[in-house]
Design goal:
The longest helix has 25 residues. Helix 9 packs across helix 10, helix 9 crosses helix 11 and helix 10 crosses helix 11. Helices cover 45% and strands 18% of the residues. It is built from 11 helices and 10 strands. The chain is an alpha/beta fold and 292 residues long.
Length: 292
């Protein structure tokens, strides 16, 4: 018989949140694959458990190389427990490659449900939770980050992101530029830890707050794009949405059609707003030259 791959959630902050089954799995697994073996050691000490199986590292740098080894162990009947530094494996953490490889070999995969920064932040945000999508980490480069955000400009589901504290201010500023400064959001910091904080407000306000410096593990929750009925969006917002789509690579004609469909308006109305904005910008430029 083949073995079993067990994905186990680990605490995102408070060790008391560890699921009861985690201790039993740690003690009985044939192999424990850990993102950081030192953090695993601290976790087992806090839980008062002792691993009897072989402990191996399984992180981004060796994930590709170590996956075949673990799959062979599973094929030979081993029970392999996979844990990451915090939360559920595979969710912006190592694990996907191993799960996919195990499934390909028809090896059983199960889970020990546990803490999740995504769901915890979503629940605490005060934003709609009936429909949401997880976007993980945004690209580090400014241009690529803007492009990714523009792809989600019209997304109506609540958006959840992970972000590093030293990039938070730039990310929130980019979100304010693409989604609008008044779009509601929540920055969830140090969840379940001593200095847990949830800062709620418009993206523009949050970007200014973050510019002062923020520390800790960060999850950002952003309200989805509003479902505007006919006539509810003013010309400025219509033009902004067209511009966002154009910057994402859409042709103007396609962008106008998409924005009109979103707003429930005739394409001609959106087209007129774009033309009026273009003419106003041209007149302003001409007036400036005349004064110089």
């Amino acid at each position: 018989m083949t073995g079993t791959l067990v994905l186990a959630g680990t605490p995102i902050g408070d060790v008391a949140d560890a699921p009861p089954r985690l201790a039993a799995e740690l003690e009985t697994a044939d192999i424990v694959a850990a993102e950081d073996t030192r953090r695993l050691r601290r976790l087992t000490q806090a839980l008062g458990v002792h691993t009897t199986g072989r402990v191996v590292s399984y992180f981004e740098g060796n994930e590709s190389a170590r996956t075949p080894e673990l799959v062979e162990a599973l094929a030979g009947g081993a029970r392999v427990l996979l844990v990451t530094d915090a939360g559920m494996p595979s969710v912006s953490d190592p694990g996907y490659r191993l799960v996919a490889a195990a499934v390909e070999r028809d090896i059983r995969v199960t889970a020990v449900p546990g803490p999740s920064a995504v769901l915890t932040a979503l629940a605490l945000s005060g934003l709609p939770v009936d429909r949401f999508c997880f976007e993980g980490f945004l690209p580090r480069k400014a241009g690529e980050r803007l492009s990714r955000l523009r792809e989600s400009a019209g997304e109506r589901r609540t958006l959840v992101y992970f972000e590093a504290p030293h990039r938070l201010d730039d990310t929130l500023a980019a979100m304010a530029e693409v989604f609008g400064e008044e779009r509601r959001a929540a920055v969830c910091r140090e969840l379940t830890k001593t200095y847990e904080e949830v800062k709620r407000g418009g993206l523009g306000e949050l970007a200014r707050w973050a510019a002062e410096g923020v520390r800790g593990e960060i999850t950002v929750v952003v309200e989805g794009a509003p479902e505007a009925g006919p006539g509810e969006l003013d010309a400025v917002e219509l033009v902004r949405r067209v511009r966002v789509r154009e910057e994402a690579g859409e042709r103007r004609k396609e962008a106008i059609a998409a924005v009109a469909a979103e707003a429930g308006l005739p394409k001609r109305e959106v087209f007129d707003a774009v033309v009026a904005a273009k003419n106003a910008a041209a007149e302003g430029s001409a007036s400036g030259k005349g004064l110089s």
